[in-house]
Amino acid sequence: MSAWARLTGWARALRRDGLTLWFALRDPRTGWWVRALAVVVVAYALSPVDLIPDVIPVLGLLDELVLLPVLVWLALRGLTPQVRADCRARAEQWQAEGRARPVSRVGAAIVIGLWCAAAATLAAWLWPS
């Protein structure tokens, strides 16, 4: 198997697992701490806005290559095997039907809010009154 095939398979699995967590959020069998972690992961993963823009060399891709997969893995580990299997099956069906990826407007709002807070902090630091 080529490196490119492994990479695309990994990306496809990560997309599926993000969708699995999206379904797990709606499953009443999901525990509260997994739900709390999944809210953060899903909001960020499905947000149309990145916390660290991809145009920033190295750091821009670091969140997608390291942070997001680790958080997805941790949240999936917290699900019971039955919930994980049921939600993964729903995610696979969603992808097989070619349905569009859900978008998290809440996640986008949080990321934009963080950017505004960072800009205000930087401005206050650079221009003290």
Tell me what the structure shows.
There is one protein chain. With 129 residues, the protein is mainly alpha-helical. The protein has one domain. The protein has helices spanning 3-25, 32-45, 59-78, 81-96, 105-126. The termini are far apart.
Mean pLDDT: 85
Oligomer: single chain
Return Rg in Å. 17 Å
Roughly what fraction of the amino acids lie in strands? under 5%
Structural class: mainly alpha
Biggest sheet descriptor: none
What sort of overall outline do the alpha carbons produce when their principal axes are compared? globular
Order of helix and strand elements from N to C terminus: HHHHH
* Terminal-residue CA separation: 60 Å
Number of helices: 5
Q: Outline the low-pLDDT stretches.
A: none
Helix content: over 70%
Tally of individual domains: 1
Per-chain topology:
Layout: H1 3-25, H2 32-45, H3 59-78, H4 81-96, H5 105-126
List the defining traits of the structure above.
129 residues, mainly alpha
